[in-house]
Design a protein that fits this description.
The chain is α/β, with parallel strands linked by helices. It has a single domain, classed as Zn-dependent exopeptidases (Aminopeptidase, 3-Layer(aba) Sandwich). The strands form two sheets. Strands 4-1-5-7-6 form a five-stranded mixed beta sheet. It has a two-stranded antiparallel ribbon with strand order 2-3. Helix 4 runs antiparallel to helix 7. The structure holds zinc ion (ZN). The site of zinc ion has 5 residues, from loops.
């Protein structure tokens, strides 16, 4: 057994090194390298709910079900001054394709599917009209990763959902999207998603109205050959998954007839 004692010191040293390595890496990772603020808003920036009494008297405008579909990164170079950091964020690329062309193909098909059910659809670029309201807002994005084996979709709502229905929308979308695409669900919802600029009505003029039920969808990875095959080759599949979810949600809220 004596020979087992000898490696104890090197092992202790190794553990210490690894521990400090992890702490150091985390510290470094958390620091914005450029000094610019991170892309996503932090949860702490959102206002307390008590400050929002003025919303109590809000009433939905009359009219048919209305859905805003944002083509992620479209015309990002036209972002307003308050969101100028978006101007150099053109989105992910992979396999010779850009995220924005994938997002646009799916969003246009999604618009067609929803409109055929009587929904009023606004296709929106990076710049959201000030105080934009709709029954549902869906921001359509495609993810990227340096590791081409990473695949799957994820859907998130805002840190501050004042509609009370965004989680339900997300749950319905997750289920309909997975059913249509058969993609795995990626659990790595990021701050960039929950703090998405278009959700941050407390900070920006060009953001959704707080009574807009909203979700952001990362449809899959443009850098993964399997995801890309569906997203690029058959955009009607992810579009169908999203349309089914939005329609189901609208019906659950009595905003659309069966
Ligand atoms: Zn994106």
């Amino acid at each position: 057994m004596n020979h087992l004692k000898k490696p104890v010191l090197p092992i202790v040293l190794l553990v210490i090194l690894v521990t400090f390595g992890i702490i150091g890496a985390r510290f470094f990772y958390d620091q914005p390298i450029t000094g610019a603020p991170p892309y996503g808003e932090s949860e702490e920036d959102a206002p307390a709910l008590g400050e929002l009494d003025w919303l109590r008297d809000w009433k939905r405008p009359d009219g048919p079900a209305r859905v805003g579909v944002q083509i992620g990164h479209l015309n990002n170079e036209d972002a307003p001054e308050e969101q100028k950091r978006l101007r150099n964020n053109g989105g992910a690329t992979g396999g010779g394709y850009t995220e924005v062309e994938v997002n646009a193909a799916v969003a246009e098909e999604l618009k067609r599917l929803l409109a055929s059910e009587g929904v009023l659809v606004d296709l929106l670029p990076t710049t959201i009209p000030p105080d934009y309201w709709a029954d549902v807002f869906v921001s359509v994005h495609t993810d990227g990763n340096t590791n081409p084996t990473v695949s799957g979709f994820k859907i998130a709502s805002s840190w501050r959902d004042l509609t009370g229905t965004a989680r339900e929308l997300v749950a319905i979308l997750e289920s309909s999207y997975q059913e249509a695409t058969r993609f795995p669900k990626d659990p790595n919802i990021s701050r960039n998603m929950r703090g998405y600029y278009a959700f941050s009505w407390w900070r920006y003029e060009h953001a959704i109205h707080p009574k807009t039920t909203a979700a952001i969808v990362e449809m899959g990875f443009i850098t993964n050959p399997g995801d890309r095959k569906i997203l690029v080759g058959s955009p009607e599949i992810p579009a169908r998954g999203l349309a089914d979810g939005v329609l189901k949600y609208l019906r659950s809220q009595n905003l659309l007839e069966d």
